[in-house]
Fold this sequence. Notes:
Number of strands: 6
Strand order of the largest sheet: 1-5
Oligomer: single chain
Order of helices and strands: HHHEHHHEEHHHEHEHHEHHHHHHH
Amino acid sequence: MNxxxxxxxxxxxxxxxxxxxxxxxxxxxxxxxxKVPAKLLLPATLNNTAGMMNNPRNFEFVYLWHGLWCIxxxxxxxxxxxxxxxxxxxxxxxFSNSYAIGQxxxxxxxxxxxxxxxxxxxxxxxxxxxxxxxxxxxxxxVPYSEAFKATEGNLKPKYDDQKAIxxxxxxxxxxxxxxxxALPVDATEIPASSDIIFGGNMxxxxxxxxxxxxxxxxxxxxxxxxxTYIKAAIATTASVGYLGxxxxxxxxxxxxxxxxxxxxxxxxxxxxxxxxxxxxxxxYNAGKDAVxxxxxxxxxxxxxxxxxxxxxxxxxxTLGITEPAPLTAANTSxxxxxxxxxxxxxGTFDKSAPILTDFESLFVQAEAVERxxxxxxxxxxxxxxxxxxxxxxxxxxxxxxxxASSEKTNVNYDLAPNKVNLILMQKWISLNGIAPxxxxxxxxxxxxxNFLTFSADPNxxxxxxxxxxxxxxxxxxxxxxxxxxVGTINAFTSKIFWQNR
Length: 501
C-alpha cells in the first residue's frame, strides 16, 4: 500500500513503540480513530500487531530463559532476567500497546454496519481474540468485558477471570467464522492494501480463526476433566479446517529499506545501510541449549538459526553463567543472518512478519491428533511441520525429509517414545525467533523441553523462571482498585489457569 497513507494511519492510531508512555488501556486517544474508514484503519492495526509481536525486546525473557538465546559475554548480564526478578515495569509496553491496538479493532467493529462489509468486522474480531489470548497467556486475569470502552467513559475497566475470557474468545472466534461463512455473494472485496496478511482471502481468515481456537483448546489439554469441553468446542467448526501448508499468517505492509519502515525484527539488529544497530547483532548470541540440541540431532537448521563463529563451528552460552567462564563473544555464535537472505532467523528488511506460521499450525494439529482431539495422522502433520520449518528457513524440502528419517529419537516420529513430547521439542526449536509467547506457554503447560538450564546465576530468586508477568506499573498507578481486586500475585506461583503441573 502507499507508504505515506500507512504512516498517516500509524500516527492516527498512535500505536508506535515510541509512544508507549501514552498507550494505556485507561487513556483516551484524542484522535478519533473511528473516523478513519475500516479499509484504511485495518492495515495500521495489522501492521502494529505484527510489529509488537515481532519485536524481540518485548519477549527477550522467553528466548533467554528457554535456552534459545544468551546475552553476549561482551555485555553485562541483565540482573533482573538472570535472577528472575521481574518488576511491574517489565514489558508493560506489550500490555498497553495490545489494548491500544484492540481499541482500534473495536472501532472497526463498531463502524462496520453494512452486511457487505462484514468481512472487515470478522477480521477485527479475529485479531482481537488473537491479542486477548496472548494477554491472558502472559498476565492471566486482564481487562476484558469492560475493556475498549474508554470513549464511552470507562477509564478503569475491571479485570475478568482468565478462564472465562478464554471461553468467551472461543465463542467470538466461532461468531467470526460464521460471519465469514454468511458473507453475501456481493460482499465488499477487501483489497490487499487493506489486508496485509491474507490479501482479502476470507477462507484463510476463517482457517486462521479456527487455528487460534484449536491452539487455545490444546493449551488446556493438561487440565483435569477438560477433554469433553475441548472436543465439543472443536466439533463446532471442524469443517472449516486449519492453516495448512503455504497458508501462514504473515504480515507485510510493503517494508522499505528505510529507518522505521523495515521489518521490526530485522530493524532491531540492523540499520538500513546494513550496519549493526547499537546493541543489536552484538548483544544477543546463541543459547547453549539450542545449539546443543541442533548439533546433537544433526539438524541442518543450525546454520539458519545461528551463524558459525568460525568455519562451521557453532557454540552458545547459558544465561547468567559465570562458572566455568562463559565463552568469549568471538567464540559464540551470533543469531542467524546472511545479507539478502530471507531464510535466516533475522532475515531481511522486507521479510514478512509472522503472526502464525503454517508449521506452528501443523505442530498444533499434530499434538491435537495425538491427544485424540481431532482426526488425522500425527506423523504426517509432524513431518509436514518440519518440512515447512525448513522451507521457511530457506532449506530444501528434501533436507527435511531426510532429517525426519534420521535414527534420532528426538527427530524420528516412529522412534520417539513419547510423540507429544517430540512434537513439543521440535516445535520449541522451530519457533525460535518467531513465536515467543507460544514457546513460553508450551513449556509452562508441559515442562517440555525438560533439559533447559534457564539461568546459571547462583543468586536467582527461584529454581525455575516466573510463570507469568506482573501487572504493569502503569495499571497500578491508574487502575489500582481493579488490579488489587485480582488478589495477591506471585510471579512464581500464580499460574495461568491452563498450567496444571
